[in-house]
Amino acid sequence: GAGVSQTPSNKVTEKGKYVELRCDPISGHTALYWYRQSLGQGPEFLIYFQGTGAADDSGLPNDRFFAVRPEGSVSTLKIQRTERGDSAVYLCASSLGGVGSKNIQYFGAGTRLSVL
Amino acid sequence: GESVGLHLPTLSVQEGDNSIINCAYSNSASDYFIWYKQESGKGPQFIIDIRSNMDKRQGQRVTVLLNKTVKHLSLQIAATQPGDSAVYFCAESVFNAGKLIFGQGTELSVKP
Q1: Which positions ≥6 away from B69 have C-beta within 8 Å?
Q2: Which of A10, A49, A91, A105 is the best residue to mutate to test the B interface, defined by the most B CB atoms within 10 Å of its own CB?
Q3: pLDDT digits 0-9 by tens, B46-97
Q4: Cα torsion angle, B33, B38, B44, B47, sign
């Protein structure tokens, strides 16, 4: 079946604007994760959903960042009042389960966000 | 802990040689570890995982070794091929915590 799909693949925006990044997980995966990756560094955890609820949002840097997963499948990461420091690749991953199960996370190709 | 910067550690090997990529992890409570491969412009791709009740696990051409005493993880790639050229990340988690904590990454360059 299809892997994790992220849209758009690239997003260019201006400082202060609002952006939405979309993630379609692998069908049947109940757990969904958002990470942010800066150039030359490993992915940094942002938020994790088990079903519709955010099980762990400890990685969100501030209240400008918000994510939803209303039907337990597709998720949207929302960034308000974007800043140049938000420029990075935003990665989404999904896994069959979350807590208590083998946690192989499968990643999408990411959305490259550039804030001018 | 590992230093963070724009310049990844680099390992350069000849095609056909074996490669060993090392990783130090930070959390003594971590009990699940994964190696990912990331090619330019792509997301991380799962290679192999290991739980803390094991010290070695083998896959196809890859072996992961875990030393919990010194909190060290290594990935061995046998008969390295040009297609193995990528950045390799280790990641750790507590088994029932969900999130992965990634290391800095090592860039593997394979010369034909």
Answers
A1: none
A2: A105
A3: 999 999 999 999 999 999 999 999 999 999 999 999 999 999 999 998 876 7
A4: negative
The predicted model gives A1-14 an average pLDDT of 93
- The residue behind tokens 């992890």 is B25
Q: Do A59 and B93 touch (CB under 8 A)?
A: no
Residues B45, A33: C-beta atoms closer than 8 Å: no
Contact list, B44 vs chain A (CB under 8 Å): 43, 91, 107
Nearest Cα to Cα of residue A43 among A100, A108, A98: A108
Domain locations along chain A: 24-94
> How far apart (Å, rounded) are the C-alpha atoms in residues B34 and B95?
11
Instruction: Using CB atoms, pick whichever of A31, A104, A109 lies closest to residue B98.
Output: A31
- What is the rounded CA–CA span in Å between residue B108 and residue B112? 13
Looking at the complex, does the CB of residue A25 fall below 8 Å from at least one CB of chain B?
Answer: no
Contact A105 B46 (CB under 8 A): yes
DSSP for B25-50 reads: ---TT--EEEEEEE-TTS--EEEEEE
Rounded to the nearest integer, the mean pLDDT of chain B is 91
- Under CATH, which number does the domain B10-111 receive? 2.60.40.10
Whether residue A109 lies within 8 A of chain B, CB to CB, comes out as yes
Pick the CATH number of A24-94 from 1.25.40.10, 2.60.40.10, 3.30.540.10, 1.10.3720.10: 2.60.40.10
